[in-house]
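task queued by scheduler; priority normal; single chain, no ligands, no partner chains; default sampling; output format set to structure tokens
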Amino acid sequence: MIPISHFAEKQQAHRSSGREQLRGGLLCGFFLFAATTLQQVGLVSTDAGKAGFITALYVVLVPVAGWLVLRRRLDGIVWAAVLLATAALYLLCVPKSGFRLQPGDLCLLGCAICFTGQILCVDHFAPRVNGTALARDEFLVTGGLSMLIALFTEEIRPDGIWEAAIPILYTGLLSGSLGYTLQIIGQRDVNPTVASLIMCLESVFAVLTGAVLLGERMNGREIAGCVLMFIAAILAQIRHFNLRRLAHLLTGSISRKRRRDKGVL
């Protein structure tokens, strides 16, 4: 990320001061560090499916926080998409046996709150600073804080690192560097609520990937959850279209067709 961000900064004119760039990197990096750390701690004592559901509750927390803190009003159709996405996450992540509270659930709820903060911080700083530089600073802060905590709480062994080399490389290069960099670049022009809805599609892709690569069979709940999540993502984007103009064009084309048919008759 460091050479890529350095090249991008040379190609793009600075639109902000170094102080704002630094503040954005510190805030985004802190929230990302707190979210991922609380998620790892919570997973120790919580089922993976329920952990995914609680973590993805940022889809609800982002519009609520944006409304309470930033005074941003949302269309009713976006709120409907949020409710649909929450129902979809429940079907995808929570088993039929039900939802039982466990010790790690509070950590996962804190994780969802921190992811909410990270999404809102990216929404604030991404249009104001260089995107790749912001991603670089975010990763440096997250990695530095994680290493600092690990030195005091973990036993770091070369053989352990070697055994986990593939997961470390995948999460570091793809789901970490590439994924969060694309988030920052994408959120330049996307509402944070819509961004959270789109990112919740990770639950859908997780289920689909398990079915395709691991041969896992999708049950009715998971299929219904995927359908609801896709509908929620589509609903969140409908507000970008001028429905009145679309209806006017459709009625106009219908009336012209009728006139042509009458002329033929």
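post-processing summary
- DSSP finds 13 helices and no strands in the chain.
- Residues 81 and 179 are 23 Å apart (CA to CA).
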